[in-house]
Amino acid sequence: MEAIAERVVGLVIEAIDINALVSKVDMDALLTKVDIDAIVSRVDVDGLIDRVDVEKIIDRVDVEKIIDRVDVEKIIQRVDIDALVEQTELGTIIAHSTSGVASEVLDVVRAQGVGLDDFVARWMDRILRRKSDDWPPGPVLLVSTVAEGDSLAVAAGAQQ
Asked: N- to C-terminal Cα distance for the chain?
């Protein structure tokens, strides 16, 4: 009996013009009765994502076109430079480098001053006809300390 019912249903389906039937259906009325949320909740999103070929999508993306659309000036205006400097060691690096440069400049100026002082002293010695043998060997306290240190070193070497 079941076989006969299946055969009858098959004959009816063959006899019906599906295109004519679908053309008479009001799709808008049909869609208002469909619960889209229920359909979407049954979708396996993780399964869909697993099936996506990300490399193929990346190959299709025109990166140059995206870059052309980016407004770099607008991005730069949004950057908080002060906050960036606070979060990095950049301020310290700048302070160290500027103090290092200033220190080097000061050393150069001092060296030039010493050179100029020696130059002036040699000319003054020539003008005043002084000999370099007449110069003191250095500041009294410094020279006496070096002399004592030398005598101590000599004494220590003699004991060994």
From this structure: 128
Calpha distance 141→32 (Å, rounded): 106
Kind and range of the H or E run holding 142: helix 140-159
pLDDT tens digits, one per residue of 98-118: 777 778 888 888 888 888 888
Q: Average pLDDT of the chain?
A: 79
d(C-alpha 91, C-alpha 97), whole Å:
10
Contact 90, 96 (CB under 8 A): no
At 137 the three-state DSSP class reads coil
φ, ψ of residue 33 in degrees (nearest 5): -90, -10
Which residue type is seen at 98? T
pTM above 0.90, yes or no: no
Q: Counting Cβ atoms within 10 Å, is residue 125 exposed (0-12), middle (13-18) or buried (19+)?
A: middle
